[in-house]
């Protein structure tokens, strides 16, 4: 009794099941041999695919001078990747050319197949993905030198009724409030008169204690009393007992008194008290160091 071979009429066909990149398999329903995974298939073709689902790269372009870090799925096709990069780079997907550079700046490869997956290229975290578009000039979107700007002269601005200045003037705000400005000027004048009056009680050589809000008290000796070039009003120059100052008695190239560096300082008279303020004992003597 002869045996009849059982078979499938017509050409045998392979069926492909769509899974994740790492699970994509090619199946053969006519045999029981192990299925060939997508990874094995592409490795046999000489292509290496990373198992990580995402890759983090630095995206640069000729259309934009600033690079940005982005993460992409390795399962994206190059065409889909270009579509995502349009908003990032300013380049058009249809004319975009992508090149991969390593961490050392050397060219790795070009993404030249729109149907290929990103994961089929040797792209790793930290690499640079550079987009070029021959239809766009470099820095076309970041160069503002050619942008037409709205310019207005001072006279034209003063005539406008919708400006901030016009609003303040109508509502008597800031320097346009004459009464408020006069009040501030009167307060400043009274404050300066008090500073001047107190400064007249100081003499060069007086021991003093300086108390500036927010700073520890410091003792020293009055070395200068009078006007200065660095700020208006009366100032007191002090040589401190310890290097807690800001200068050596000179400010802006002009010398008012002489002392060691970091021992000199200038304060307003209201922060200075003169009297019996000997140098502070730091608690050190010959028997204790």
Q: Overview of this structure, please?
A:
One of its GO terms (cellular component) is nucleus. It is found in: Cytoplasm. Keywords: Chaperone, Cytoplasm. Pfam families: CAP_GLY (PF01302), Ubiquitin_2 (PF14560). It is a single chain. With 289 residues, the protein is α+β, with helices and mostly antiparallel strands. It folds into four domains: 15-44, no CATH class; 54-132, Roll (Ubiquitin-like (UB roll)), CATH 3.10.20; 150-199, no CATH class; 207-274, SH3 type barrels. It is built from five helices and 15 strands. It has helices spanning 38-44, 78-89, 154-159, 164-170, 178-199; strands spanning 15-17, 25-27, 36-37, 54-61, 68-73, 97-101, 107-110, 128-132, 207-210, 218-227, 234-240, 250-251, 254-255, 264-267, 272-274. The protein has a five-stranded mixed sheet. 16% of the residues are buried. Residues 1-50 have low confidence and may be disordered.
CATH class of the largest domain: Alpha Beta
Provide the domain count.
4
* Biggest sheet, spatial arrangement of strands: 5-4-8-6-7
CATH architecture of the largest domain: Roll
Distance between the termini: 117 Å
Give the proportion of residues in helices.
Answer: 10-25%
Strand % is: 15-25%
Features:
alpha+beta; Ubiquitin-like (UB roll); five-stranded antiparallel beta sheet; 15 strands; CAP-Gly domain-containing protein; cytoplasm; chaperone; alpha-tubulin binding
Blueprint of the fold:
Blueprint: E1 15-17, E2 25-27, E3 36-37, H1 38-44, E4 54-61, E5 68-73, H2 78-89, E6 97-101, E7 107-110, E8 128-132, H3 154-159, H4 164-170, H5 178-199, E9 207-210, E10 218-227, E11 234-240, E12 250-251, E13 254-255, E14 264-267, E15 272-274
Parallel strand pairs: 4-8
Antiparallel strand pairs: 1-2, 2-3, 4-5, 6-7, 6-8, 9-10, 9-15, 10-11, 11-14, 12-13
């Amino acid at each position: 009794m002869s045996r009849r071979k059982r078979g499938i009429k017509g050409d045998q066909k392979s069926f492909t099941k769509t899974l994740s990149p790492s699970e994509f398999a090619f199946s053969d329903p006519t045999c029981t041999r192990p299925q060939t995974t997508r990874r094995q298939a592409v490795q046999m073709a000489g292509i290496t695919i990373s198992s990580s689902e995402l890759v983090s790269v630095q995206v640069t372009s000729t259309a934009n001078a600033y690079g940005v870090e982005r993460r992409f799925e390795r399962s994206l096709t190059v065409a889909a990747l270009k579509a995502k990069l349009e908003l990032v780079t300013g380049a058009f997907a249809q004319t975009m050319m992508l090149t991969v550079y390593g961490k050392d700046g050397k060219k790795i490869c070009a993404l030249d197949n729109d149907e290929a997956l990103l994961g089929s290229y040797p792209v790793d975290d930290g690499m640079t993905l550079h987009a070029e578009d021959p239809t766009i000039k470099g820095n076309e979107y970041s160069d503002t030198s050619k942008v037409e700007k709205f310019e207005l002269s001072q006279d034209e601005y003063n005539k406008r009724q919708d400006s901030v200045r016009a609003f303040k003037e109508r509502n008597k705000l800031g320097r346009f409030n004459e009464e408020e400005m006069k009040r501030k000027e009167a307060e400043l004048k009274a404050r300066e008169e008090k500073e001047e009056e107190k400064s007249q009680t100081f003499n060069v050589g007086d021991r003093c204690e300086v108390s500036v809000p927010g700073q520890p008290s410091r003792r020293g000796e009055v070395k200068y009393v009078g006007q200065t070039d660095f700020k208006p009003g009366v100032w007191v120059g002090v040589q401190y007992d310890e290097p807690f100052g800001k200068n050596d008695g000179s400010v802006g190239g002009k010398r008012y008194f002489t002392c060691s560096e970091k021992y000199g300082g200038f304060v307003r008279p209201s922060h200075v008290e003169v009297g019996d303020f000997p140098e502070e004992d730091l608690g050190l003597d010959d028997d204790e160091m």
